[in-house]
Here is the input.
Amino acid sequence: MSQERLRVLLIEHDPGFSRRVGDMLGQARDLTAEVRTAKDLRAGLTELNGNNFDVVLLDVSVPDGAGLANVSLIKAEAPQLPVIVAGDMDDESVAVEAVHAGAQDYLVKDQLTPGWLERSIRYAIERHRMDMALLEAEEKYHSVFDHLVEGIFQTTPDGHYLIANNALARIYGYATPEELIGGVTDIGRSLYVEPGRREEFIRVMQQNDTITGFESQIYRKDGGVIWISENCRAIRNGKGKLLYYEGTVEDITQRRQAEERLRNSETLYHSLVETLPQNIFRKDLDERFTFANQQFCKALGRDLAEIVGKTDFDFFPRELAGKYQQDDRKVMQTGQPYETVEEHQPPGHGKMYVQVVKTPLYGADGKIIGLQGIFWDITQQRLAEEKIRRVNGLLAQNRKELRSRNRQMQDDLKMAREIQLTMLPQQYPAFPNLDNPRHSAFEFTHRYLPTGTVGGDFFTVSALSETEAGVFICDVAGHGVRSALVTAMIRALVEELKPSAADPGQFMNKLNRDLHAILRHTGTPLLTTAFYLVADCRSSKLRFCNAGHPKPLLIRRNAGEVLPLVNASGKSQPALGLFPEAVYEATEAALRPNDLIMLFTDGLYEVQNAAGELYSQSMLVTGVQQRLKQPAPRLFDELLAEIKTYSQGTGFTDDVCLVGMEVG
Here is the structure.
């Protein structure tokens, strides 16, 4: 018989007992064990976090632990593992307390034998497997019960809920089934809108023991009224005594509203056809009139009773009547609507032109039972058509000229795009040796993806000194010509403010005032967010200032952390150009070897999938976390590919700018 190989984690501070356990497991007949020993609780939790085990053997008295409370800590870290507790006390109450804490067994150290240890491990694993299977079965039952679309209930005959599922609570406007059960203690008085409706329900149940399609209006928790349909049966014991009612509830509000809308639409239809200025009629398959509105009756000079049952030959010249019926047969034979302009001559009137629309009428079985026609006088319209044709000729000429201007505009926008791209850094400075970029303390990379011909995102990297680098990024709302123009102005202002660039707070304050002075004359300021940082490779310090911009990510690769760069005050600072007296304060942070600072605009994560769900900033952080060891160019490319895949073909809807600064 092959032996089962198990991985055992022993958390034990006594080396002697650890050796005893190893020796005893070495003598096991039906299993082989690989034992990993942790000398204290902290080391044990670390082992659980990084390795897979089949069972945990825990000394209840490890020095950094808390007695039997250690079991809960281990179960929280590895709920799928069985735990066996070992201790010095031969006390039944201690063993019971250990099991209550979540352990599968309690062993007395000085009474332990190889066979006893082997059985305890086997029984603990098997009991844990049974517990997990039972838990899984319970979860499956509750999953089905709580995720049904229909509400499910059990109620007492006197109107108390015994059980209810999530769907029923949702239908009635309650957050949980427990809230529903506790809040509705008299179904007849609390739920039903119509007095006596619960009594009617009870009466039917007493007669038949079942009820189907019992439709009623009920009050929701918020006081709103909805329609429901109940199906129910009476549950009795072996002696026929009624125990409770059990059934389902369906929200039929939409169906009842649809029925009401149908009734209203029929009323509205007859109201409309009698007030419309158009002539409206209906015919059956034999070409006999079955309905006519008052306008049609007036046109013929007859009452409705004189029209119903007659045909076109009773009212119109034979040639016209034959033409009308020929068109009718085409509609009823093909099932296709028919629209035309034709001559019409009511009795006692001259010829006129009318617009005619005829559509088939269908019965409940889906078969054509006749047609409906509507027509109206368009004689004056015919006279206007010639004038319209002349105007259309002029419009065609104007469109030709407009297309020529559009082509010129596209050429201008293409040139603007090329100029805008030249505004971005073409190469990066090196630090601290400006003449040797291969040994730079800072390495830069970027990705720029405008969604339009020109965009509203901009960034720049500047050498403030031999050791200081300035990185600026901004995002002007929109991605058209206006945004591009504001971006160009900001670039010019950034160049002018280079004397203040070493102080991020002073730099951002001046930039805000200057931009406000320019934009206030436009009448419609554009939202402009920006972030500016100064990094010093000599002092390993980072100073930055944020003006309403998405928080860049500080990626500490050596520590495995991804942290947002937040203001020291914890408060957000307004976007640029809105408030001239706004004060922007700088915040300082430490730079560490192998750090990466990732700056970006909001177009990176404001992406929706087909279900309308946004790629959130938390998902962005997770994506970076999964790739934090990668070089910035590869990290950026994979991150962009991931977001594009998430969008399911939609892609980015706003400009995207990514800038990375890696610390050597």
